[in-house]
Amino acid sequence: MDPAVITLCVLAVAAFLFVTELIPLAVTAMAACTALGILGVLPSKQVYAGLSNSTVVLFGGMFVIGAAMFKTGLAEAIGIAVVKKAGTNQVPLMAAIMLVTIVLSSVSSNTGTVACLMPVIIGICQAAKISPSKELMPLAIAANVGGTITMIGTPPNVIVTGALTAAGLPTFGFFEFAYIGIPLSIIILVYTLFIGRHFIPDKQAGEMDEEAVKAAAEEAGASGDSAPKSKTKMWISGIILLGVVACMALGLKNLPLHTAAVTGAILCVITGCLKEKEAYAGIDWVTIFLFAGMLSVATAMEKTGAGKMIADAVVSMMGDNPNPYVLTAVLFLISNVLTQFMSNTASAALLAPIGISIAQSIGADPKPVLMALGIAASMAFATPMATPPNTLVLGPGGFSFNDYVKVGVPMCLISLVASVIIIPIFWPF
Fold first, then answer.
1. 366-378 vs 344-361: helix axis angle to the nearest 10?
2. 23 φ/ψ angles, rounded to the nearest 5 degrees
3. N or C: which end of the chain has fewer CB within 10 A?
4. pLDDT confidence of residue 369
């Protein structure tokens, strides 16, 4: 059988398993690349090559640094301080919640940020006699959009960067995502404060799934004990984070991004901000293995021509010489719809290699197309299962499925329009 056909069959099975989640996402990704090796599509050296990719190393290092922020209590302390200073007026409190969540989610786990801040926000709302639902929905919204600002803010950003690497194309820089992430965050923030908040239902607080919140916080690295946190370790973890970010921003020749991240992770352990086992536990291994597995699948699609086959089929449906703006908008919509019902990491992993092939088939630069796909996968506002932050606030906010639709769909459309306008400015076709 033709290697391209075999690759497409493996991809189809992987897509089905990603959507249904019959088996864990990471297992699906690793099974896909293993199957390609067994079937002779990929040589043995390339089957698991994704695990040694520098982006995987970068992501792992930053996971550890993010875990240190939660373990020392720094992230929680920053969030609580900002939120409490905002007072008890509904709109200023909403603005403070969204701003601090956007900032924290750009450099650490958005799920962990929501898990740590949610109990505090509920307490403030109850004391001020404000419906918690009015503040919890903006919390989830900000956690989703804040992740788009840096490469490590959300897994789709890493996925699209890795897809470009697998195809041998120029990749995105660490802070390059901010060109679209910051404008989008501002747009969503302003929209929520002035218009979107009117669509958020005013409901009595529901039951908070304390086990789920605790699990999410622990997954991000937050300490589960109530003992006083060391302010010294808070400062150390903060300084390490700032130092790593500064090194990345300076683009030092002898200190590439992944080296800076790993150095920061090592310092977090050496200084006692994290124990060794806590550092290992802070790494999101699901994202790591899913990324590595789909990187090999992307390589197979590029080398066998399977990606080109899909691209040719899509382009032919759009007629001769399709407009790259229209094509980008269509791919944005596909990615955004998928991410409302399945993992945003999985949707980005599925579409990224296809997006590259489609862009190349029409003679366009793949970077704006990949950026649109990644951003679309993170704009998971419209369903409660779209992303963990949405799920965490579901019970405490007393929300229904339709509540997410009413609030989220307009934001998805706004994100689409903003992305189609802004992305080509910084990454021309």
1. 160
2. -130, 160
3. N
4. 93
Q: What is the mean predicted confidence (pLDDT) over 333-339?
A: 90
Integer-rounded Cα radius of gyration of the chain: 21
The set of residues, in sequence order, having a beta carbon less than 8 Å from that of 401 and lying 6+ positions away, is: 383, 384
Classify residue 363 as left (phi > 0), alpha (psi -120 to 50) or beta.
Answer: left
Closest CA to 373 of 183, 58, 158, 59: 158
CB 342 within 8 A of CB 18: yes
| Averaged pLDDT for residues 234-247 | 89
Please check whether residue 186 is in contact with residue 375, taking contact to mean a CB–CB distance below 8 angstroms. Answer: no
Residue ranges covered by each domain of the chain: 3-426
pTM listed for this prediction: 0.84
How far apart are the C-alpha atoms of 165 and 295, rounded to whole Å?
Answer: 9
> Residue 407 in contact with residue 137, Cβ under 8 Å?
yes
Q: What pLDDT was estimated at residue 180?
A: 95
Count of positions (residues) in the chain = 429
Look up tokens 């080109």; give the residue.
308
